[in-house]
Amino acid sequence: MTALQQPARAGEPLRPPARIPFPVVDEVARHCLQEEEPETVHIEVHLPGPLDRVRLRTAFAEALRRHPRVLMREAPGRWYRRRYEWELTAEPDVEVVRCAAPGRDALRAARTRALTEAPPLSLSPPIRLEVVPGGGPVEGSEATDAVGVATGGRSAQEGSAADTVPRQGTVLFLTINHTALDGPACLRVLATAAELYGGRDNSPAAPPVRTTAEAPPPREDTPSNWSPPARVAQGTPEPSPGNGLLVAELPLPHRPKGSPYTVNDQLMVTTALTLAHWNREHGARPRPLRITMPVDDRPRDATMPIGNGTRLVEVPFTPAELAAHTPADMPALLHRTATRTRALKSLPRPQLGHGAALLTAPVAPVAWRAAATRGLRRAAAPWTSTTLLSNIGRIPYPLDFGEDAGRAHAVWFSAPARMPRGLTVTTASTAGRLHLALRWSRALLSHGDGAHLRDLFEHYLHTTEVNP
Q: How far apart are CA 450 and CA 438, in angstroms?
């Protein structure tokens, strides 16, 4: 969709900007907005060298023009309108690129803003790019602040990119209003900006060719989606609202050549075992787990459709599968998980299921549908999945900003973590390392809880490294 505001011919009035109705995902997200827990996606890109601010602003502005679906704002309308609409604009309404002052707490403060300050939907585009220049060490491995944003993972002695910004390095924070756009789409825009800035090819790498053995069929005791799944057990809630965040850099798990499972399956099993362990520690009754997994079938080149383009599937696990196990049990669990995820990915399904498509049909005023959607969301809370695991996978773009700034050596994503899930797990791999972000609702967990979950995740990730 590239229709933008068109200049008028001589003597004609200016044509109004083009409008497009909200897709299903956007409308449901718009209905359920909450000020205390903004629906933001945060992308954090670490570069080894400095960036020229003027050149970056110019490059990013041109990248927005090359992906015009980003340049949009919510169109005003009366309460009885049948749809929300996006209004496409020819230029941004605001300066998108901002530069933070260097300092010891600059990185932590930028993470805080990414979680607490959503770009408004009323201004085009609903994203913000913040540049944090390097200034030496900025945070320790257990740093925290008033909103629970923290770094974690490998210790500072191990050189984690989460713990230290190189003295001449730069960190880019891309904050996205998730009602309008998702992380992969905005990463595509950032890759275009990198190419324009540095003059180097930032085309996506070809996806890896997977040679896998045949997996055994799934067991017959797969839990039903009609039964309420386990919740993440209450930790130590904090008094202020919002989300907390912890990022970590971990080794990529080993996977024997020809394995019938992928790294994504290893991460799925790791997440399930981590939460089962956490719930046992907190005295929760064993229940089946369901983990929501976004699936993104879009191409990664310049033709990639921009917007919220993933569909959601739910991967189930029985309590017996996640009970105390031995290393000998791990291959079978990985194989069953691989079978389930492949089957779920192959099923044609609307992004949020058939129910959401019916709920957003424009047969009643949008204000009435909003009230109905919020009521159904509250009623369906017990059936909401246990958590969300969003594995971006290997970052497909070099994110190479040229000779001075260099190529990204660490990229973190985080997804919103509203209740009733209260916890999301997001992973990506860059330069042969796994970049993990745990994000939680402060009504459920504290920073200390997040650090413990990170340690459990690292432990169980290692247990998935089975021998051939």
A: 7
Measured in degrees and rounded to the nearest 5, phi and psi for residue 462 equal -65, -35
According to DSSP, the β-strands at 19-21 and 387-394 are unpaired
pTM over 0.85: yes
Q: What are phi and psi of 122, to 5 degrees?
A: -80, -5
Contact 134, 50 (CB under 8 A): yes
Q: Which two tokens stand for residue 116?
A: 């607490």
- Return the pLDDT at 402: 95
Q: Is the peptide bond before 125 cis (omega within 30 degrees of 0)?
A: yes
Between strands 311-317 and 387-394, the pairing is unpaired
Q: How far apart are CA 335 and CA 135, in angstroms?
A: 46
Q: Is the dihedral of CA 69, 73, 77, 83 positive or negative?
A: positive
Q: What is the pLDDT of residue 349?
A: 76
Place of tokens 């230290």: 164
Q: CA 105: distance to chain centroid?
A: 24
How far apart CA 230 and CA 227 sit, in angstroms, is: 10
- Those residues whose C-beta lies under 8 Å from the C-beta of residue 355, and which sit 6 or more positions away, are none
CA–CA distance, 73 with 89 (Å, rounded to integer): 8
Q: What is the pLDDT of residues 418-461, one digit of tens each?
A: 999 999 999 999 999 999 999 999 999 999 999 999 999 999 99
Terminal Cα-to-Cα distance of the chain (whole angstroms): 48
